[in-house]
Design a protein that fits this description.
elongated; Aminopeptidase; about 25% helix; alpha+beta
């Protein structure tokens, strides 16, 4: 087994041979240089923020066994004795490699090598939540094929609404009612903007109440989000809609690689009127994202444990978004390691 001190980072993406020699290290305190190009949710920094909440958690680094070069990374947390999860229903995990697209045989070997290390630590069951299919389409196809061939079984997939951020305004893709909200917002005294640090607690309150009202999953406590913002500057973005001086809608979004903005939490005050201010908030996020070089925007999950939230499904379509599948896969590991 290679020591963590021997691991180096990839200088630039290259095509990996399907026969590349592999080694895997499961680390409890990984450094930031161990996962080149990883997105926020699969980064060592994100792992360090959350690992302490689990009895056991490891950051898996897949390396070139001959050079120590880091080829892929992702993290696993023990959610019950002998059962680990990578990613949750509210976000995603699985291994990430900057050398996409991988050869399907190499992706399978990475998975098997990681299984061996988990099995050696008494793990008998693995659950993996992949990124939404639209997030990294080519990589998703390769990893999905590899996991299924290796005996992972899918649960009912969740739904994530996504839209491209291009030259067209988001309002051009909305239904009649949300388009009217955006077009008449100024006359109604409504405006959207980035939030100030002093407004974040109010935004969290608005979003939490909205999630509870519409049957969405509870969002992370404010302290946890602020801790992530402090540890990972520039990755958390707060935006809101005001009617005169009152906050009537807000969002918390994360920056992911490949110029992707993920709306992890979003909600409205619920007592404005039938003209939902989320239409203005989404239009603002789309314009803001375009100015920041963002190419894709998602609204987060529109389902829970695979069961669609019909309110969010209707809202997503009206706002001009398209649903994408997010798979969670499970596998019971054999007692013996591979030969």
């Amino acid at each position: 087994m290679l020591d963590a001190s021997t691991i180096t980072t990839a200088r630039a993406p290259r095509q990996l041979s399907p026969d590349t020699e592999l080694d895997v290290a499961l680390l409890r305190d990984p450094g930031d240089r161990l996962a080149p190009g990883s997105d926020l949710l699969r980064s060592p920094a994100f792992f360090r923020l959350h690992a302490q909440t689990y009895a056991r958690a490891w950051y898996a680094v897949v390396m070139d066994g001959s050079s120590g070069e880091s080829l892929a990374g992702g993290w696993f947390a023990e959610i019950a004795p002998g059962e680990v999860q990578s990613g949750t229903r509210e976000s995603f995990g699985a291994l990430h490699s900057p050398f996409a697209p991988l050869h399907t045989a190499l992706a399978a070997r990475m998975i098997l090598a990681t299984e061996d290390e988990l099995r050696a630590r008494g793990v008998h069951r693995v659950r993996i939540t992949l990124p939404p299919a639209a997030y990294e389409p080519e990589s998703h196809a390769v990893w999905m094929n590899a996991y299924l061939r290796l005996g992972y079984g899918p649960t009912v997939p969740d739904l994530v609404f996504q839209a491209d951020v291009g030259t067209d305004a988001m309002v051009d893709h909305m239904g009649d009612i949300p388009r009217a909200v955006v077009q008449t917002a100024a006359r109604r005294g409504m405006a959207a903007r980035a939030l100030r640090p002093t407004e974040r607690a109010d935004a969290h309150t608005v979003i939490s109440a909205s999630h509870a009202r519409h049957g969405r999953a509870r969002i992370e406590p404010l302290e946890g989000i602020l801790a992530m913002e402090a540890a990972l500057p520039g990755t958390v973005h707060w935006h809101g809609v005001f009617q005169h001086d009152r906050m009537i809608a807000a969002s918390i979004s994360f920056s992911l690689p490949a110029a992707h903005l993920s709306g992890q939490a979003m909600g409205d005050a619920g007592d404005v009127d039938r003209h939902n201010p989320l239409a203005l908030l989404v239009s603002h996020l789309h314009e803001w994202g375009a100015s920041e070089g963002i190419r894709a925007l998602d609204l987060g999950l529109a389902s829970h444990a695979g069961e669609p939230n019909e309110h969010l499904m209707t809202l997503g379509r009206q706002l001009g978004f398209t649903p994408s599948l997010q798979y969670t896969l499970e596998k019971e590991l054999a007692a013996e390691a591979r030969a």
